[in-house]
Amino acid sequence: MGSERTTLIAPLASTARADEIGVRIAEAIQLGLLSDGERLPPEAELAQQFGVSPVTLREALASLRDRGLVETRRGRRGGTFVRRSPEPDESGDLKRLADIAVTSLRDFADEQMAIAGMCAVLAAERATPDSVRRILKLVDQLASATTRGQKIKADSRFHIQVAIETRSERLTRRQVALQAETVGMLWTSHLPQDDIAHIAQEHHDIATAIAEEDRELARSHAERHVRSDLRRLTSMHLTLVDGAGGDS
Fold this sequence. Notes:
This is GntR family transcriptional repressor for pyruvate dehydrogenase complex. Keywords: DNA-binding, Pyruvate, Transcription, Transcription regulation. It holds the Pfam family GntR. Strands 1-2 form a two-stranded antiparallel sheet. It is globular, with a radius of gyration of 19 Å. The chain contains eleven helices and two strands; from the N terminus they run H-H-H-H-E-E-H-H-H-H-H-H-H. It is about 70% helix and about 5% strand. The N and C termini lie far apart (about 50 Å). By secondary structure, the chain is mainly α. The chain has helices at about 5-10, 20-30, 45-50, 55-65, 90-100, 100-125, 130-145, 150-165, 170-185, 195-210, 215-245; strands at about 70-75, 80.
């Protein structure tokens, strides 16, 4: 597994419940860190990676099967496989964006600003040259993405990779959770085309500051990016609400 997925399957607390494991795997699927058709490690191995009993893991996988996120196949080539459409349907995310309160969007942004700003600072201190190249590659992937699924994956992986370079599992987990909550609402057909290039440029600015080991500039660019995303989400929310009102 890649570094993002390894972080997602870091050992949990000894009291971890099945729903916590389900959340981690569901987030990885939602963000494209686990691909459609990808086979999960055998149950015994995956339970060991999470630091839980096989019974707890099986309970988590059963819940994911009920949600249609994984399927289990029998036989020599069997196992548990990820089910994720390469082009996720946006209807659920549009409904969430229309229903959410602007104050809730602001709360998300407040937390995101704290997490993203500190991640950028620590990444500027701790990222290796190879890590910087990975971050810059993800900037390029977003700039060249053509489908919604590709954009969601490249965007979320960029922020998660920056968090990984902090060497802080707690910061990385919070960034993953925040991405899972918000990235789908951002990348919908209501996002103006011009904003796509702006988002890629904002990522490039963060990555460049990290590469130059400029802590405060990295923080400034990361916080500015969060404020810009808040404006984008708020604008799309208001458009959806006004449109719904006009239809009634």
